[in-house]
Recover the amino acids of this structure.
């Protein structure tokens, strides 16, 4: 049995990590993910291990086992990241994203762009049950439309993430929603209905902010509608036929095909579409001349799109950056960071330091507001320490289940608070799996979009406010 460290000792690795990450971002800026953050995570892991082994005689094997279990739990997420990299490149080169951008900038107005983006991403995320899929597809297109309309990319990313995580949170197809319900022993649809009491007012406030902000920021940026439209039409074959790809993807999602299969099929369908509709682009990426066999050209161009960065010359430098993609290779910094983050999370669990911090939070509970506030605080700490929302949800449910039951509160109150505190805030943490992934996919640093993700940081506040008002608090029959 491993001794539980004191709270002061337990906070040393976490405080060290936060300090080192902040310093790394200050020094390297957007390049912090290229190695600086990984170094900080491993350094914090080493401090955790040294403190635990030196002061509490924890066996090294315990750390190995915990890190292995934590990393293995993230294996599927890592594969999904690789497939998302493939899909992002394929959707761009096939003309799906350029067509969406080209049509979108002609339909949308700058004033209503942010609120429209938030609502569109919310609907797509509810249907797909995945914030990651929504952001990697519709989100990428909305970044391009926002650029053309002169809307700051950080505001656009905030609206995308707010809408995507609203849908992810309440969709019955979402894995985090299902996980939060199952861990706490709550019926799935009861969990979703009860979440609407905090989620709906938060979304209304969020959309109101984006609606007002739309009029405030409209006209502040330089619009490139005609310039972008002309550049895209001269480079890509802009046609509604490209929408076959998202249509097939939508059908697979509706049929509840596993996300890994759905994303893979979507990527390869987009590549076939590129070969049919964007032959000049494929040849440009392949870098072959007229003497090369056309089949070899298509194979080389397609494979290059899927596994490495591609650059298409549109005649406009800003547009070139927008339509460039990274493929699977573009995800490697993120995957490297996730592995280091999982090592830190595994070490914090093996040393009992994470348990010590959360136990201290639980020990200060006074009344309903204190209970919900402690749950929110614990969820944030676990997101910071484990770097993964799934691990945090599981730990939170197991730690607080008996506490809520002993005080006569229904399990749905715990499941709702867990989602309010963990699911939506994970994307705000630069070194978490969600924060790293969305920053990579959107090309916007976590610290840049964080201030504009109103739904994500208003959700835990709403949960505490509702508890303090005592509004519709679910209790057990007993």
């Amino acid at each position: 049995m491993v001794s539980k460290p004191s709270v002061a000792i337990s906070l040393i690795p976490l405080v060290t990590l936060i300090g080192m990450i902040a310093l790394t971002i200050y020094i390297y800026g957007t390049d912090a993910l290229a190695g600086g953050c990984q170094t900080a995570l491993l350094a914090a892991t080493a401090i955790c291990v040294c403190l635990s082994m030196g002061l509490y005689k924890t066996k090294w094997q315990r750390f190995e086992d915990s890190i292995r279990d934590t990393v293995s739990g993230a294996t599927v997420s890592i594969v999904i990241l690789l497939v998302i990299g493939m899909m992002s490149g394929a959707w761009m080169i096939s003309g799906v994203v350029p067509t969406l951008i080209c049509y979108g900038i002609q339909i949308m107005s700058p004033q209503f762009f942010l609120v429209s983006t938030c609502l569109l991403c919310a609907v797509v995320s509810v249907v797909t049950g995945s914030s990651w899929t929504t952001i990697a597809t519709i989100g990428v297109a909305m970044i391009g439309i926002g650029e053309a309309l002169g809307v700051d990319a950080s505001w656009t990313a905030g609206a995308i993430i707010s809408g995507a995580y609203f849908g992810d949170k309440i969709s019955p197809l979402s894995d985090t929603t299902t996980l939060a319900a199952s861990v706490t022993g709550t019926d799935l649809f009861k969990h979703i209905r009860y979440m609407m009491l905090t989620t709906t007012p938060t979304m209304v406030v969020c959309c109101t902010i984006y609606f007002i902000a739309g009029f405030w920021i409209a006209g502040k940026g330089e619009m490139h509608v005609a310039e972008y439209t002309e550049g895209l039409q001269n480079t890509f074959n802009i046609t509604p036929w490209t929408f076959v790809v998202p249509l097939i993807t939508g059908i697979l999602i509706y049929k509840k095909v596993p996300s890994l299969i759905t994303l893979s099929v979507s990527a390869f369908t987009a590549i076939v579409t590129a070969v049919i509709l964007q032959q000049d682009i494929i040849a440009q990426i392949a870098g072959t001349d007229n003497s090369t066999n056309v089949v070899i050209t298509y194979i080389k161009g397609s494979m290059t799109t899927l596994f490495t960065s591609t650059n298409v010359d549109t005649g406009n430098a800003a547009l070139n950056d927008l339509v460039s993609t990274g493929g699977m290779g573009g995800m490697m910094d993120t995957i490297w960071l996730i592995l280091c983050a999982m090592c830190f999370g595994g070490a914090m669990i093996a040393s009992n330091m994470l348990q010590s911090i959360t136990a201290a939070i639980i020990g200060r509970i006074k009344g309903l507001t204190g209970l919900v506030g402690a749950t929110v605080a614990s969820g944030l700490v676990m997101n910071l320490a484990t770097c993964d929302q799934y691990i945090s949800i599981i730990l939170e449910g197991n730690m607080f289940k008996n506490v809520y039951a002993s005080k006569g509160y229904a399990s749905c109150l715990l499941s709702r608070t867990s989602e309010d505190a963990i699911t939506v805030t994970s994307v705000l943490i630069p070194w978490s799996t969600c924060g790293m992934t969305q920053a990579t996919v959107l090309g916007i640093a976590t610290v840049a979009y964080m201030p504009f993700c109103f739904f994500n940081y208003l959700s835990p506040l709403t949960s505490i406010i509702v508890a303090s008002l005592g509004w519709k608090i679910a209790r057990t029959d007993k």
